[in-house]
Specification:
Bound molecules: NADP nicotinamide-adenine-dinucleotide phosphate
Helix content: 40-55%
Strand order of the largest sheet: 3-2-1-4-5-6-7-8
Number of helices: 10
Distance between the termini: 46 Å
Amino acid sequence: MSQRAVVTAGTGGIGLETAKELAARGLDVTVVGRSAERGARAVERIAEVATGAPPRFMAADLASLDEVRALAARLAADGPLKVLVNNVGAMFAERERTVDGIEASFAVNHLSPYLLTELLLDRLGAAAPSRIVNVSSGAVKVAKRTFDNVEPPGGYYGFHWYGRAKLANLAYTVDLAERLRGTGITVFAADPGGAATDMTDGTMTSPKIVSPGLRLLWPLVRRAFERSTAGPASVAARPSVFAATDASLDGRTGLLIGPRALPVPVPRSATAPGVVDDVLRHSRRLAPLAGGAVVPSR
Ligand SMILES: NC(=O)c1ccc[n+]([C@@H]2O[C@H](COP(=O)([O-])OP(=O)(O)OC[C@H]3O[C@@H](n4cnc5c(N)ncnc54)[C@H](OP(=O)(O)O)[C@@H]3O)[C@@H](O)[C@H]2O)c1
């Protein structure tokens, strides 16, 4: 029976700690990242604790939809997949576009995991009971829930746009769980809380990342960021590991696992009428499963 697990952005930060724990529990782990050097170092560290097959690294820039498709093809060729942890995520201090011309927060935090998941459903089904874990964030709580367009109206505030992309992914996660009910593939979101990682190092130091209202309270907001992202990545990995492996979740699906590694209520914004329909519409148009032209909307 397949014991294969994939952790995206698994060569550093919370992803590496997640990969180490899964490998220690006997899963055959493949980690994905951009840098081959970081990948080689990660594989060495995971191998120190692995109790199953030797860990592997696959290179892909998950900000590129073509690279996501190529990665999915390589992973699918390896056969059934027991666990997929979509851990990739990023916050951009300045507005950026990906190589596909798509706003980067939405592309990296939602479209990339959406596309990889959809392309691997067949392989996950072949290993059922199997699990998908999408890494979320507390930032969904300050996110605009309008998804008429890919980019929300108003100015660019990195933290809020990041939260909105994570909200899109959470709405997709809950919907996917329902779609897959009864197939043996279960779907969870995991909120790591916060940790000191490359993502938080330096990106949360400018008041420009929050909306003008919150900028007035910047000293307080900054202290809150510092406090919540001071902990170790190994602790922030616990919700993902729990979601991917804990026996108490057998037969359950569509749950959000909170920072204390226990189920917590899904924010109502993720199930608000219209949100999932809009998110799916953008996802299917921008990241068609068969590839093809992407026409970003501004
Ligand atoms: N840290 C926090 O406080 C916090 C709080 C809430 C939620 N989260 C979420 O937790 C997850 C992990 O966060 P983290 O803080 O560990 O992030 P991180 O420190 O930025 O993660 C580093 C890992 O991501 C890989 N990576 C970055 N961009 C990539 C890309 N475009 N394609 C492929 N791999 C990429 C890096 O490898 P390469 O550089 O080699 O590509 C490395 O393996 C994210 O989804 C994040 O949104 C984090």
